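Homework help board

Subject: predicted structure for assignment chain

Our instructor gave us this sequence and asked us to write out the predicted structure in token form, then describe one feature. I got the tokens but I'm not sure how to describe them. Can anyone check?
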Amino acid sequence: GSEFPLDTSLRLKTFSSKSEYQLVVNAVRKLQESGFYWSAVTGGEANLLLSAEPAGTFLIRDSSDQRHFFTLSVKTQSGTKNLRIQCEGGSFSLQSDPRSTQPVPRFDCVLKLVHHYMPPQALPGSTPKRAYYIYSGGEKIPLVLSRPLSSN
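My token output:
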């Protein structure tokens, strides 16, 4: 069968509802097909993996935080940043900074969320969008996901 066993780390998480569980299971399945899901990699390992890569390289991994399922690790011009992906009310969104005034877009799939933050030229026919900024150590850094780091 094409059953994906749920990662052990996900089994430790608490799901607020059956639909949330289903949402995350589907997300994991799509992420496993995406080729840039590193599941059990830690933040430190992600930093090492991305350290030699150009800015814009990113990967998705399991969050080490009990309340979150996934973390987006991305190499920016200021080094590697780890952004939690929040799952609430049947949708995923990037954890927003209290200083950010931008509305946080929500998606029913982690891959759609990733695509949203990819540069427009990566997707033919898409309209250019405003840069999304993340705040880190007092800096405002544009978030660009240009190149997934393949886990194969």
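Reply (TA_rk): Your tokens look well-formed. For the description, you could write something like this. The chain has a mean pLDDT of 82. That's the kind of observation they're looking for.
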